[in-house]
Amino acid sequence: MNVVTVKINGSEYNLKGEEREEYLHRVASYVDKRIIDMLKKNSRLNVSDASVLAALNIVDEKFKADNIIETLKKEAEQASNAEKALQTQVNDLKRHINNLEEYNIELQNKLESTKSGEYIKEIEDENKALREELELLKETSKKYLKEKNDLKAENKELKFQVQSSKYKIMDLQNRLIENQIDLAKIKKKDNPLLNIK
After folding, report:
1. How many domains in the chain?
2. Collapsed DSSP state (helix, strand, coil) of residue 129
3. Measured between alpha carbons, how far is residue 173 from residues 105, 134, 156 in Å?
4. Pfam families from the xrefs (predicted)?
5. What's the gap between Cα 188 and its chain centre?
6. Domain of 191: which CATH number?
7. What is the rounded distance in angstroms from the CA atom of residue 33 to the CA atom of residue 48?
8. 196: pLDDT strictly greater than 70
9. 94 SS3 class
């Protein structure tokens, strides 16, 4: 466990946490800045009121970040479901292409084995139509594969955003805890009845 001494609004506090020292200093610095901003915006505020307002703003940020994370999770889930559906379509198209290729081979074999000119023309026409359908299916398959890859990239980005938002929430939660500690210390300092031993 790391223990660091930080300054918040001119007072020193010892912070303990599993996080790195740099992180704990960042949390304290953020809380300090928010309290000082509150005091600058309204010079009539005392430190206790400024701390409460800073805490309210930090919690507001946390709630908004929570909402963003929920939205990103839903978008990531939708992208994942769309990717699965596209993969199923791609697999179906591949099977259909394989069936058409087998049928095409069968028709070519029949074409080679027959000697009737009229039958050959009929088979050639059918074979040509099948080749065109095969090419169309291949193009469709490429399109679905591209959409699948695009969705994968989008899903990856959404997962990254969800992870970033989680870290932001953790940061905000730590700031809130530190702010609550600061508020309790300030209340104790400002209330002479609490200092009686």
Report:
1. 1
2. helix
3. 66, 57, 26
4. ZapA
5. 42
6. 1.10.287
7. 15
8. no
9. helix
- Gap between the terminal Cα atoms of the chain: 31
Beta bridge partners of 7: 12
Query: What average pLDDT does range 171-188 have in this prediction?
Result: 82
Rounded to 5 degrees, φ, ψ at 66 are: -60, -45
Task: Give the sign of the dihedral formed by CA 76, CA 79, CA 84, CA 87.
Answer: negative
Q: What is the pLDDT of residue 191?
A: 66
Token pair listed for 122: 């009929």
Alpha-carbon gap, residue 106 to 93, rounded angstroms: 20
pTM over 0.70: no
pLDDT tens-digit series, residues 22-70: 999 999 999 999 999 999 999 899 999 999 999 999 999 999 999 999 9
Tokens of 152: 């994968």
Q: Residue 62 in 3-state DSSP?
A: helix
Give the separation between CA 193 and CA 190, rounded to whole angstroms.
Answer: 9
CA dihedral (177, 180, 184, 189) positive or negative = positive
Q: What is the pLDDT of residue 6?
A: 93
Assigned token pair, 150: 């695009």
**Interatomic CA distance for residues 30 and 184, integer angstroms:** 18
> Domain range for residue 105?
2-195
d(CA 149, CA 86): 10
